[in-house]
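Possible race condition, two jobs.
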Amino acid sequence: TLPARRHSSPVISNVGKALSHLSEDSILSLDPSKVDHSPFQDRFAADQEAEAELEVLKLSIATEGQKIPVLVRPHPTKADRYQLAYGHRRLAAILAIMNEAERSELVKIKAYVRDLTDRQLIEEQALENGVRENLTWIELAMWALQLKEAGLSHRAICPVLGLSEAGVSHLFRVTSVIPSDIVYAIGRARLVGRPKWTAFADLLK
């Protein structure tokens, strides 16, 4: 029997293009305290699992160094500061290392620096989310909502999230009904998938 043909995921294809682009950028060493988070929120407050993962990453960077640079843009309104496009966990780990260091001024973060519009920044941020495996279903739904508010159409959101149009519609079916403050109060809900969130949304109607 012939092996099934493997189709390339749009997300993986986009990652390849991004890596080619990044290889052309120079890597700079920046003061981590001058890097602000993205203005677009793609993560919920850290839970115990996320905190444990951060400790592991922090130990890895402290022991072996930062292997993968983050991506930042010059801050659009503050001189000598930057905004993060992606690398949230790496930044958090390096800031924690910096806070514990005897000479904090020696702690640096490796970063690609690129001029990005808001739309480009959110697309780069979405690209990292697309290949990250630890977003829960509701985090993905709330991130899709941010992409929509940033001006991306449903069709444009599909390849970014690696979902079909039906899959994206399911996300919006929930976020259009459940208020954001309730979603954030519930949290990441790691073991809860689409059926329960959809049922909850139907009850709220």
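Job #2 (started ~2 s after job #1):
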Amino acid sequence: MNYFAHLTLARPTAASKVGNLLGDFMRGVREDSLPGPVRLGLHNHRLVDRFTDAHPLVVEGRGLFSAQRRRFAGVALDVLFDHFLIRHWSRFHDQPLQDAIAGDYRLLASGEPLMPETMRATTRSMAEYDWINRYRDLDNVGRALDRIAGRIRFANRFTGALEEILDHHDRLEQAFLTLYPQLCETVARERLETAR
């Protein structure tokens, strides 16, 4: 799952939103130095990633990509699943989508003191350029994946992954629609961010 799904599966606090994104920004960060609520959010992030990465439908989805792109198929699916979450938001959540997105941006801004610098820069850019709403458009998903390919530090043939997404769009969408409610149930059952 990508940024929006992680934010959605967090609790409605700045510390939780930060912790639930922090898993992608841990370089140079010592987990034992984090405030308790941020650390619990980080644990929730890791639960979401473990569940998603091991899910049979995700394993099958990665296998739909060509050999030249398969190494990064997980990244492609993460971003694509944010697109599907936006597209099918009202199926799973009662809060209006735009209220949820605005709330996430607001809580991330208030949580900046809890973030490492690289995360702070990313979340500022996310809000300024409204990355989440941009993922509503599948062409923007393709552009985002091409930008990711351009940042990879070695030669790769990941650019153009949208072509393969389009080839398998309906199957991948159905995988998300099956996976996401199971993921929500797992997060609710584990209650990693609830005081025990």
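The longest helix spans residues 169-190.
Logs attached separately.
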